[in-house]
Amino acid sequence: MQNQLQLYNLSKATTPTDVVALWETFATSKNNLRFITTLGNYTNEFLPKDFIKRVFSEENDFLPYFQSPNLYFIDNDILKSVLSTKKNVPIPVDYSVMFDTQYATYVHNFVNNQTNKFDNDVWRSIDVLLRENFQYDYSFYIIENSKQIALHNTFNINDFKHTYKDIFDNIISLELFKSIDQELYKQEGKVCYTITRVEAEIRATRNI
Fold first, then answer.
1. Which entry of 54, 106, 124, 193 is 20 to 30 Å from 151 by CA?
2. Is beta strand 71-75 parallel, antiparallel or unpaired with respect to 34-38?
3. Do the Cβ atoms of 137 and 96 come closer than 8 Å?
4. How many CB atoms lie within 10 A of CB 3?
């Protein structure tokens, strides 16, 4: 109950000072915890304005995961740096993109040349994905589909591949999509996969 109250207080913090103070009393003994929040009284425009304009456009299907760009990050290493320097600590941004079921399916169709039903927004979104230096995260896709998976059973990867073939095939396609040679696509508009389907299946199996 105490931990729940402290997490609630963290979620309601409005300034970096609030977060640091609460984190000191809650999480300094828990080395593996990290916390990301949006703060009302804090400005952190870590995404370049031209990037925001290009990606979060009405002409494609990207949506920001967080309700505000004013993100604040904290973990024990960041806390030590804040306390020692008394300044904000720069946080590297990896531009991760999460896929939901709909877009995982679009990517699967793209990889398998089944694009006859793509509208312009989907094509533009695919183009942005291939041109920007994104990291791809399909954990959201797996979580979204976990309701289909019999979690009460002992997990067996071979059973999973057979029983949930559509999910597994989409993950393989996401691995192939991640491997596309970005520079070649940007320069010549050609799609070239840098791994084979077998390699993609091995990676997909490893990451489930």
1. 106
2. antiparallel
3. yes
4. 10
Short-list 9, 12, 71, 79, CA closest to 45:
71
The residue among 134, 133, 125 whose CA lies nearest residue 107 is 125
Find the Cα–Cα–Cα–Cα dihedral 199, 132, 34, 138, rounded to 10°. -40
Strand pairing of 135-137 and 96-98? Answer: parallel
Q: Are strands 34-38 and 96-98 parallel, antiparallel or unpaired?
A: unpaired
Q: For residues 102 and 87, state if they share a domain.
A: no
pLDDT at 26: 73
Instruction: State both tokens at 127.
Output: 């183009």
Residues in the chain: 208
Residues 66 and 133 in one domain: no
**pTM for the structure as a whole:** 0.69
Shared domain for 101 and 88, answered yes or no, is: no
Question: Residue 48 pLDDT more than 60?
Answer: no
pLDDT in tens, 31-45: 677 788 888 787 766
Looking at the structure of the chain, the number of domains it has is: 2
Contacts of 38 (CB under 8 A, 6+ apart): 66, 67, 68, 70, 71, 72
What's the CA gap between 101 and 163, in Å, rounded? 17
Q: Rounded distance, CA 4 to CA 94, Å?
A: 30
Q: Which domain holds residue 141?
A: 97-207
Query: Does 121 share its domain with 69?
Result: no
Q: Are 35 and 77 in contact (CB under 8 A)?
A: no
Q: Which two tokens stand for residue 78?
A: 């960041």
